[in-house]
Design brief:
Order of helices and strands: HHHEEHEHHEEEEEHEHEHEEHH
Number of helices: 11
Shape: elongated
Radius of gyration: 25 Å
Number of strands: 12
Helix content: 40-55%
Distance between the termini: 63 Å
Structural class: alpha/beta
Oligomer: single chain
Largest sheet: 5 strands, mixed
């Protein structure tokens, strides 16, 4: 059996690297900064690897330290999880969920109470992230993304969404497709680093209409959620994703002035790294989230 380095030394290294200083690690571990320094020196000697460059009063991770940190952080979190579970009623599973920012701002946060009610107490860290996300550095358990960005991890397509013209009741009345060009339009652009969102030009093209410059005028937003909020505020007609606008359509806060829709180019996908796949809470959240997404996209208001 290969001799293992000092567990206390590894713990001191992980705390110092995570907090950014020996002093921070000392406070967390309730020892002196000198003790932290000595523990880390012992580990470095045992491994015959430098883990920190010591620059004046600062410490900077070496390449070996950068490689070790996320693995040790996961290992100590797992040890802590086991200890809490063995401790009895105090155990609460922890879940790190990463979704696009528009989904975190309202759509998912309003629904999480339903998961907690059905599953029980769980500590959830909800992150609104653009792609790509650092799975290991942030210990992400489950990622919902637009498009299959992470095929190096187990990934599944879960729903295919579409974009629908929506506005507040009374803004349009009875209207023909070509009439939309005379109304205030709300545009959504996901930016140069994001995927391409269907434009009003795409919509008019699919409807067989040449809108001219009218399809370029109006308000614009760089997130789907912001564009939807502008429409709910009565400022114009937005092309909104079904997954986000279904609830407002069902409640009558929005209407679809025209039936023409545009299918999005890519599906929504779920990615779960292998280190998280066998956890019960991850499996339960996966199925719950799939059901919520499919319920929204399959809403009668979108048919």
């Amino acid at each position: 059996m290969v001799a293992l380095p000092s567990l206390k030394g590894l713990q001191a290294f992980e705390a110092a690297a995570r907090t950014g200083s020996f002093a921070g690690a000392a406070e967390e571990l309730s020892v002196s900064a000198a003790a932290v320094s000595q523990l880390i020196r012992t580990v470095e000697e045992q491994m015959d690897r430098k883990l920190f460059h010591r620059v004046n009063r600062r410490v900077v991770l070496t390449e070996a330290g950068v490689e070790m940190l996320p693995r040790l952080t996961m290992a100590f979190q797992e040890i802590g999880s086991v200890a809490r579970q063995l401790g009895g009623d105090a155990f609460r599973p922890r879940l790190v969920v990463s979704v696009p920012p528009s989904m975190a701002m309202g759509w998912l946060s309003r629904r999480l109470a339903g998961f907690v009610a059905s599953h029980g107490a769980v500590d959830i860290s909800l992150r609104g992230d653009d792609d790509p996300v650092p799975f290991d550095r942030e210990l992400i358990d489950i990622r919902l993304s637009y498009g299959p960005h992470y095929r190096e991890h187990p990934t599944e397509d879960i729903v295919q969404d579409a974009a629908y013209p929506v506005c507040v009741p009374g803004l349009t009345g009875t209207i023909k497709p070509e009439g939309l060009a005379s109304l205030p339009l709300i545009h959504t652009g996901w930016g140069p680093t994001g995927a391409s969102f269907p434009s009003w030009h795409n919509w008019f093209e699919a409807a067989g209409i040449e809108p001219g410059r009218a399809a370029q005028r109006g308000l614009s937003a760089n997130s789907s959620r912001a564009a939807l909020d502008l429409a709910i505020s009565g400022l114009g007609v937005a092309l909104a994703q079904g997954i986000y606008c279904a609830e407002a359509l069902e409640e009558g806060r929005l209407v679809r002035p025209l039936a023409q829709a545009l299918e999005l180019r890519q599906p929504y996908c779920l990615t779960i790294p292998e280190r998280s796949a066998r956890r019960d809470v991850v499996g339960a959240f996966r199925q719950w989230l799939i059901d919520e997404c499919r319920r929204a996209v399959g809403s009668p208001a979108l048919r």
